[in-house]
Amino acid sequence: MKTHKVDVAILGAGTAGLGAYRAASKQTEKILLIDGGTLGTTCARVGCMPSKLLIAAADSAYRSRHSTIFGVTNTATIIDGKAVMARVQRERDRFVGFVLRSIEGIPEARKIYANAEFLDNNTLQLSNGDRVFAKTVVIATGSRPKIPDLLRGLRKRLLDTNSIFELADLPKSIAIFGPGVIGLELGQALSRLDVEVKLFGLSGNIAGLKDPAVKKYALQYFANEFYLDAEAKVDAVQELDEGVKIRFLDREGKWVEKIFEYVLAATGRAPNLDALKLAKTDLKTDERGVPEFNPFTMQCGDANIFIAGDVNGDRPLLHEASDEGHIAGGNAARFPDARAGLRRAPLSIVFSDPQIASVGLNLTQVKLRCNQCYAIGEVSFEDQGRARVMAENKGLLRVYGEQGSGLFLGAEMVGPRAEHIAHLLAWATQQHMTVAQMLDMPFYHPVVEEGLRTALRDLNAKLRIGPEIVKDCMESGPGA
User: Fold this and answer.
1) All residues at 6 or more sequence positions from 334 whose CB lies less than 8 Å from its CB, including other chains
2) What is the mean pLDDT of the chain?
């Protein structure tokens, strides 16, 4: 057994762990990065990048088949499932390679490939027999796909949001459980790639949307494109040699049985905490087993232990994991001088078509903060000029503002180019801009962002700060 004495031990070499390592290394050389899993970060290996590669293929197929509106006809669009998955895996491996090279650049003396468990707040036992004594520890062990009880009896035909990207070919049919961000993205993409898809939810929710008007629009739109039942009733799931037989109540109210080649569990992710034996520390944990922590310092209570990234379940997004890692690593290195780090404006984007985005406070949070002293502005993209030009005129944007101050609070939308509009709104949120200040910014013509201006004008009028919105105003050009 080898003994290691360090200032900072970091558990996990994903996005958060690498961020923690970089931040801590600016203050001390006595760091140990410990990881016993598959290297490559969730985003690069099984998350952001492979899913977007599949979506890109699906979008290409969809545009090819729906170009007649422009007077352009493609007589045949052929989808080669093996070629689609080969590109997904080839490009995915390229992105993973960037991460691996980053890890390879870390000095050998500062990293160990092993699993760890706590013996106490300062002592870690490693699976290779080594023991680590650390002044502070950063937990950045990430998460894993969660399998609902209904699907636990499945074996060969069960996929999760990690294993689906290992398929050599596109399946002929698939049942997806969970219309969250990943389930919706993959469900629509696979449907556009000629896979028979049925997407089942239980709670009536979709992609984390909170605004009832935006959620209703999204549910209706996506359910018209492919089979989506956000309040499904499924009473039997059985694996057979040829596939998985599912008995469910269809959208017409009839019980049916259907065999699918695969079932995909897209019902969220669970924190990788089980093997750490946190019970041997003095940390307080919640009902999920996640330590209580300060989201600005990432410190767990008053302990010498910090937590960052997907493992804490707070903001499971790459840019947030990176931020949290830097905060945790810096504070671990300077412990007990824990300082609040920069937390950016909440920003979430779903790469469906049309895209979905949430920025700042959601409507539930707005109501709690403002106690009815708020207003909502909105715009439909169905008649928005640039959206109609591109034949992408579907969607709804709702923006929220505070009465009295005119402060912009947040937004939710489903619509074209949401990823770009969401960034503008996130910047405005982080700068604490008022709706009037946002309207002073330039808007070119013709662009989709003119729809944002329309929504902001509507909001400003309802806040009783600006004039009533003029229908069919030609001030900025037709269709603005």
Assistant:
1) 27
2) 95
Is pLDDT at 402 greater than 80 in this prediction? Answer: yes
* Dihedral (CA of 471, 475, 478, 480) sign: negative
Distance from C-alpha of 416 to C-alpha of 93, rounded to nearest angstrom: 30
**For 31-51, what is the mean pLDDT?**
92
Instruction: Please give the model's pTM, rounded to 2 decimal places.
Output: 0.94
**C-beta of residue 9 within 8 angstroms of C-beta of residue 281:** no
Distances (CA, A) of 36 to 17, 127, 293, 434: 13, 8, 24, 48
Q: pLDDT digits over 52-78, tens only?
A: 999 999 999 999 999 999 999 988 899
Q: Where would I find the H helices in 272-337?
A: 318-334
- As given in the structure block, the two tokens for residue 117 are 């468990």
User: Residue 71's pLDDT is what?
Assistant: 95
The whole-number average pLDDT for the span 384-401 is 97
Q: Residues 174-206: pLDDT tens digits?
A: 999 999 999 999 999 999 999 999 999 999 999
Within 241-354, strands assigned E span: 243-249, 255-260, 262-265, 269-271, 305-307, 347-350
CB count in 10 Å sphere of residue 235: 10
What the chain holds in terms of domains, given with CATH numbers, is 3-145+270-334 (3.50.50.60), 149-267 (3.50.50.60), 347-462 (3.30.390.30)
In the structure, what pLDDT confidence band is assigned to residue 215 with cuts at 50, 70 and 90? very high
DSSP of 200-215, one letter per residue? E-SSS--TT---HHHH
Other CB atoms closer than 10 Å to residue 94's CB: what's the count?
Answer: 11
Residues 22, 10, 327: CA angle, nearest 5 degrees: 50
pLDDT of residue 476: 62
CB 290 within 8 A of CB 273: yes
Do the beta carbons of residue 257 and residue 245 sit within 8 Å? Answer: yes
Q: Is 355 helix (H, G, I), strand (E, B) or coil?
A: strand
The residue behind tokens 């969607």 is 395
* Start-to-end CA span in the chain (Å): 70
> Measured between alpha carbons, how far is 163 from 165 in angstroms, rounded to an integer?
5
pLDDT of residue 473: 61
d(CA 368, CA 410): 13
pLDDT confidence of residue 29: 96
